[in-house]
């Protein structure tokens, strides 16, 4: 089984979140740090960065498009979040992203192929090894290649991160999602044996509604989870 890296967040930056009586507990840990302007590349080969999404609340997660263990499950959870925000009339205020941890294979063409293969409608970004390393180091995410040839893989941290409209990292949730065994068939067929086991664990660090509740703190508007069509 692929080893998962632990999220390395400096303890002094993790603040205990205060919760109003009408709000559910914060799922993740609270942070307030401006995100550096790191150059990334979108699925069409165009240069971009998180600065391009200022004015929206961003939810992002690490991914590699050839993953068969956790990433397709994360994609499913993020697609649900995108859909729920849209259905709540907040689609223009929310940006959903997956940013690669596989600069060796995740080219813009590969990102386009992943979107076509899975049907996800959120944004996918990649970059050079140096750029992705710098980007993910800021969020405490580590990644490194394992194996060679047919056994090539990338070990990486799992988590989801929320960035506010100012471009400040505000919330971090460590670990994989719990989707209660439900995943779109086009994503589920990407899972190997370990991935299918992960899908049925029901012990993930976060659930879609919990991240939506954390979103609500930044948007000032609660987003309920709804069944995907």
Note down, in words, how this protein is organized.
The protein has 229 residues and is an alpha+beta fold. It has six helices and ten strands. It has helices at residues 71-87, 108-118, 129-138, 185-188, 193-199, 208-219; strands at residues 29-34, 40-42, 47-48, 57-63, 94-100, 123-126, 143-146, 153-156, 159-163, 168-174. The strands form two sheets. The chain has an eight-stranded mixed beta sheet. A two-stranded antiparallel sheet has the order 7-8. α1 packs across α6. The chain is globular, with a radius of gyration of 16 Å. It starts with 28 loop residues before the first strand and ends in a 10-residue tail after the last helix. Mean pLDDT is 88; it is low at 6-21.
Question: Key terms for this structure?
Answer:
229 residues; alpha+beta; 6 helices; 10 strands
Task: Reconstruct the topology from this structure.
Blueprint: E1 29-34, E2 40-42, E3 47-48, E4 57-63, H1 71-87, E5 94-100, H2 108-118, E6 123-126, H3 129-138, E7 143-146, E8 153-156, E9 159-163, E10 168-174, H4 185-188, H5 193-199, H6 208-219
Parallel strand pairs: 4-5, 5-6
Antiparallel strand pairs: 1-10, 2-3, 2-6, 4-9, 7-8, 9-10
Helix pairs in contact: 1-6
């Amino acid at each position: 089984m692929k080893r998962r890296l632990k999220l390395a967040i400096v303890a002094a930056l993790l603040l205990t979140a205060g919760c109003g009586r009408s709000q559910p507990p914060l799922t993740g840990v609270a942070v307030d740090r401006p995100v550096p302007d790191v150059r990334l590349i979108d699925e069409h080969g165009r240069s971009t960065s998180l600065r391009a999404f200022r004015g929206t609340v961003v939810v992002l997660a690490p991914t590699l498009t050839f993953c068969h263990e956790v990433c397709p499950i994360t994609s499913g959870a993020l697609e649900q979040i995108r859909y729920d925000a849209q259905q709540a009339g907040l689609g223009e205020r929310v940006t959903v992203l997956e940013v690669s941890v596989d600069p060796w294979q995740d080219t813009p063409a590969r990102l386009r192929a992943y979107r076509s293969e899975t049907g996800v409608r959120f944004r996918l970004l990649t970059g050079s090894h140096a750029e992705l390393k710098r980007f993910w180091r800021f969020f405490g995410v580590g990644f490194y290649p394992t194996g060679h040839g047919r056994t090539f893989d990338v070990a990486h941290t799992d988590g989801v991160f929320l960035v506010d409209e100012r471009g400040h990292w505000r919330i971090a949730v460590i670990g994989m999602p719990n989707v209660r065994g439900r995943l779109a068939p086009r994503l589920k067929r990407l899972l190997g044996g370990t991935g299918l086991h992960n899908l049925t664990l029901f012990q993930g660090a976060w659930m879609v509604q919990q991240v939506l509740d954390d979103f609500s703190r930044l948007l000032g508007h609660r987003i309920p989870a709804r069944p995907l069509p």
